[in-house]
Design a protein that fits this description.
Helices cover 10% and strands 40% of the residues. By secondary structure, the chain is mainly beta. It has four domains: 3-167, Immunoglobulin-like; 171-241, Immunoglobulin-like (Sandwich), CATH 2.60.40; 244-322, Immunoglobulin-like (Sandwich); 325-388, Type 1 dockerin domain. Strands 1, 3, 5, 8, 9, 11, 12 and 13 form an eight-stranded mixed β-sheet that branches. Strands 2, 4, 6, 7 and 10 form a five-stranded antiparallel β-sheet that branches. α2 (338-348) packs antiparallel against α3 (371-381). The longest helix is centred in the first third of the chain and has 15 residues, at 3-17. The termini are far apart.
Length: 388
């Protein structure tokens, strides 16, 4: 035999030599496994748990597997048993096949060191399933002996049983792909299940928020409350699309001869309190009308805006050009005649004539309304000159 095996052999003899006569352990103290799922043709790592593990330094148990289930082996062809990280430096494991079909497992400390116990299993074994084992299979844990730390008292414990659910195939839980617009909250993520039924619900998350820019984001599927162990999780995709944004021109009015108005725009659809400052290109407003365009309606066209997170549409506006007042037509009757001359004279004399339109009274454009403007209107009436 190899030297290491000899050392373990003599250590086991020495250890159990000092164990006192066996007594019954507490009814709650036992070696157990949790029910588990495995797919035929695959293997599953299953934990061995020891109740009140911190009070014991060693244990022994015999495991009986039904037809179709076998234990993974180590390089010596013996059942493979591995300790959790908290006990690998303080304890040893040994295993062997028994003539009655059982598998004996021994875990012990040669220094009488108690087990360090955490949420992990104290030890792990690997169980392989063949197609013969499909369905529910019972695994028995018998001949359980626990050794207390310090006093090294050997206690016998109750047998236990675990159910192995051997499945024809794995369950596949896949997040559904979905879309939403920029600025919206994430939808309720849905999923599909292929294969056997599952117990519990998966946890589905996505890093995208309402402020996340346009693009694709993984929808992650995690175990959540699912009890099955033979489950594959497949991520989905959330596609954030551009939000609709409309840029609209208004209806504008000016008189013929007046300067073009300032075209203001109305934005509908901004998200996250954003403004037109987020546009990578500002809109362009154009109109074929100019200062001297004839009375009529002219289209005000909006175009050219660009934005990362917005799908932009446009609503054109309208410029209405109305007929302007004639120069010299101070009474606004659409005629330049002697009545206008009289009204200008009355204004010069401070009589404040009713209906007087001062905007067209400065006929010579010298910034002052005086008798010269009245004389020029008379000359226009007599046909001596044309209106300046």
């Amino acid at each position: 035999m190899k030297r290491s095996i000899l050392l373990i052999y003599y250590a086991l003899i020495g250890f159990f030599y000092y164990i006192n006569t066996a007594n019954a352990a507490s009814t709650t103290d036992k070696v157990s496994m949790q029910d588990f799922w495995v797919v035929k043709g695959e293997q599953q790592t299953v934990g061995l748990y020891v109740t009140n593990a911190t009070t014991y330094t060693a244990f022994q148990c015999d495991i009986f597997l039904p037809t179709g289930l076998t234990l993974g082996q180590n390089t010596q062809g013996l059942p493979l048993v591995t300790l959790n990280s908290a006990n690998t430096k303080t304890h040893l494991t040994e295993s062997s096949y028994l003539s009655n079909g059982g598998i004996r497992i021994v875990v012990m400390s040669m220094s009488n060191k108690a087990f360090s116990f955490n949420s992990d299993a104290l030890a792990n074994i690997i169980i392989l399933a063949s197609s013969e084992a499909v369905g529910q299979q019972n695994i028995r844990i018998e001949n359980v002996r626990l050794v207390t730390a310090g006093t090294r008292i050997e206690l016998t414990a109750h047998s236990s049983q675990v159910t192995a659910n051997v499945m024809e195939q794995r369950a596949i839980i896949k997040a559904k792909n979905t879309t939403r617009k920029y600025g919206e909250a994430n939808p309720v993520f849905e999923y599909t299940i292929e294969g056997p039924a599952i117990e519990g619900k998966p946890e589905i998350t996505c890093e995208a928020t309402s402020t996340s820019p346009v693009g694709n984001y993984n929808i992650t599927v995690k175990k959540g409350t699912i009890n099955n162990t033979c489950v594959d999780f497949v991520a989905g995709m959330l596609t954030i699309e551009k939000a609709p944004l409309n840029i609209a021109a208004d209806i504008y009015t000016k008189k013929q001869g007046e300067s073009m108005p300032q075209f203001t725009l109305t934005y509908t659809g901004f998200k996250n309190q954003e403004t037109n400052a987020v546009l990578s290109k500002q809109p362009i407003v154009s109109c074929e009308a100019n200062k001297s365009s004839a009375p009529g309606e002219y289209t005000v066209t909006v175009s050219g805006a660009e934005a990362q997170n917005y799908d932009i549409s446009y609503t054109n506006g309208k410029l209405v050009v109305i007929k302007g007042a004639k120069k010299g037509d101070v009474n606004s009757d659409d005629e330049v005649d002697v009545t206008d001359v009289v009204m200008i004279i009355d204004e010069i004399l401070g009589k404040n004539p009713n209906g007087y339109n001062a905007s067209v009274a400065d006929v010579n454009n010298d910034g002052t309304i005086d008798v010269t403007d009245a004389v020029l209107i008379i000359d226009v009436i007599l046909g001596k000159i044309t209106m300046p």
